[in-house]
Design goal:
single chain, 286 residues, alpha+beta, eleven-stranded mixed beta sheet, 11 strands
Length: 286
């Protein structure tokens, strides 16, 4: 039963299965504990699992269902199996497609080495895009001066700031499980929001997570208030975040960006990020 799925075991399974380049899904988190936390932030009721006679997970296809405007989106991780098994992968893939509700738009994200999934989606005439994984080394990075007022919220945040962030976040992103209220519930020195203010208004904001080992940080969200777009706010904010992480001796900052977002591509390249992997995004048409 889905209710019996153990998050710790599931996160360990996903991490181990994802190491096999023949079957992959894009997961920014690279530690079991972080994947476990990610799983708790989504509704996995639409996911598919395969268990063996001992109740161990041998296959999983994780579905994160959310709304984007008027669209219902299924973000799919997998299918993944352990050990690798094409028949089980096919079973999970078919099970999901047979049981998904009609309006849901499936989005798969995986590495180019997963040729099996690529061929399955190609036969279904999926719309393919690419997702770039960027990484910036922070070792010996010089500190840069940032204009504007930058605030880091790691414990508490004022209600008026939270409300303004929520309004901007709703304009930029549409995900009920990753709304600003949810993101702000677990503020800590390892999960914080960074905000750029100018003239008493929020220009840009970002959500940053630092791995438990303290070596790598992930830029999970980066948003700019629409009226401040193309005015350099995002660049200032990422620079301020880099300065802060350097002071904490974090070694790397990483993020994922859709290649169709040309402005973001230019931003990260100009800030010294290196594109270390180009992954595949595929959207099935209803």
């Amino acid at each position: 039963m889905l209710s019996d799925v153990n998050y710790s075991k599931l996160s360990q399974f996903l991490m181990a299965a994802n190491l096999d380049q023949r079957q992959t899904c894009i997961m920014i988190a690279d530690e079991s504990q972080e994947i476990k936390q990610d799983l708790k932030n989504i509704d996995i009721n639409n996911s598919c699992f395969k268990l063996n006679q001992h109740g161990d997970i041998v296959g999983a296809l994780i579905v994160d269902r959310y709304s984007s405007g008027n669209n219902l989106i299924d973000e799919v991780w997998g299918p993944l199996t352990l050990p690798y098994n094409d028949l089980v992968r096919q079973h999970l893939f078919d099970c999901y497609l047979e049981n998904k509700i009609a309006p849901a738009q499936p989005n798969f994200f995986f590495r180019p080495t997963d040729t099996w999934l690529f061929e399955q989606l190609k036969m279904m005439q999926a719309d393919f895009t690419t997702e770039n994984l960027w990484c910036k080394s922070l070792i010996d990075l010089p500190r840069n001066v940032v204009s504007g007022n930058v605030s880091f919220y790691q414990e508490t945040i004022k209600a008026d700031v939270a409300n303004e962030l929520n309004d901007i976040h709703n304009c930029v992103f549409h995900h009920p499980q990753r709304g600003m209220d949810t993101l702000l519930q677990s503020l800590s020195p390892y999960h914080f929001v960074c905000v750029l203010h100018e003239q008493n208004e929020i220009v840009s904001y970002a959500i940053v997570d630092i791995d438990q080992n303290g070596e790598t940080a992930h830029l999970d969200f980066l948003g700019t208030q629409p009226k401040f777009l193309r005015q350099g706010g995002a660049r200032k904010l990422v620079t301020a975040i880099s300065n802060y992480l350097v002071a904490r001796r974090v070694k790397r900052l990483s993020l994922v960006q859709n290649q169709k977002a040309a402005a973001a591509f230019s931003l990260y390249r100009g800030l010294g990020f290196q594109c270390i992997a180009t992954n595949v995004g595929a959207m099935l048409k209803n």
